[in-house]
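Action item from last week, closing it out:
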Amino acid sequence: MGILDRYRVLLCTCVISLGAIVIGVDSGIIGTTLGQPSFFLYIFKPGDNQTALIGAMVSTYYVGNCLGAVISGICLEKFGRKYTLIASTFGTIIGAAIQTGAINAGMMIGGRLFAGLAVGILIPVMPTYISELARPTERGRLIGIMGMGVAVGFLLANWVGYGCYFAKGDVAWRVALAMQIPPGLALLIFSLFLPESPRWLIAQDRDQEAEAVLHQLYPEQDENEIQITLLGIQEQVQFEAQQRSNVSLGHAFLELFSRKYIKRTLLAIAVIHILPLSGASVVQNYQVLLYQGLGYSGEQILLISGCYGFMGVIGQAINMLFVADKWPRVRTMWVGCLVTVVMLVLILVLSRFYGDGNNINGARAGIAFIFLYSGQFAVFFNSTIFGLLAELFPLHLRGYGVSIAGVTQSITIIWLSQITPIAFAALTWKFYLIFIAAIIVLGAIYRIWLVETSNLTLEEIADSFGDNVLDVSGKTEKVAAIEADQVKVK
């Protein structure tokens, strides 16, 4: 068995996680682009309402995310994990190309909308795909690679923006926007060699292909173990299908809000809302306002933003080494909320007393705690939330459930991004109190109602929610009987 065979699941995860780099760059690059003077000189014409157009460039991306998330659930069920990944990746490249070649604000907004649509489709694919390829004992760490991809993408966006700040003319912002394309091209090429999810194949009655994929993914397992895994998935998929009253395409959206699955749907929405309601998206998108509030300006802000990007990478590395698959998911989430509240309180106090920039040591301390905030968010939440989203739902609802959670998150980010500049201006340091209150509520929800999913198979997790599941205790004997029959035939 070669080294590629031994680490095939890891390699597949790394390829899928290139999509996370695409998302990180796509999401982060607009902030630095709007900081380029040459962008304003070229894109905006005399008489344009710059404030409204800038708001449209930011918000239409998230509108596209909403639409894409809805489409993603349908595509994941109809076309599978692999081809939904390929199609959405191609869409991100087209969106980036439109932005790079933009000749006016309308074209730029169109490019952002198209890219947002493609990213909205892409986001639910990755945790769904990875979770269905991974073993239960390594699922958290493998989805952690996706979290690392997002962190690396934001880091690249920040430093590309800083480097392009010194370029002359239109090159400054066109090169920055074009940097969305290389990770997309790499993902598009390598994804052609990915296997399809064996769970999706079984749901499509393509059992022989699913068995071949299991052999390909886990070559170190003997035939008995492969057959146990295959039979477990087959029978649970058949069992769940028998429980469904309507199997028409898209009907699963309605099932998510049925009495049987509403708890899972609401928990998924609560889990994903740790990103906007903790202030993480605000810190990422409005770093300039935060640093200006601490007395920094100009090139200093872009440099600080570049350094800030390293904290996500460091925090995600700590997660993969010491937290993922070692800490229970529930403990990770509520302890993370406690740490986040402490960080936000410290940032609030520093902004309150040193926000005028007159005390250099106070301003430096404010920057330090914003950095620590980013690092701890990656430690506790960055990849944990995506793993939980995929783990909370059964196979036929997994893509839809992650999609609906993504829609609600995008809606929250849209209205939050609209009010943040106004709220910062009106409330200054008091604005942090809103996030602190939200985190306390979410932490209580996680501690009381979130169901533990760590180190359980995706089929076993259903039992944690009280669903009827098959007893798989006799699978070894069943496989042994099959093997015995095969020997007799020979």
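Closing note: The CA atoms of residues 95 and 115 lie 4 Å apart.
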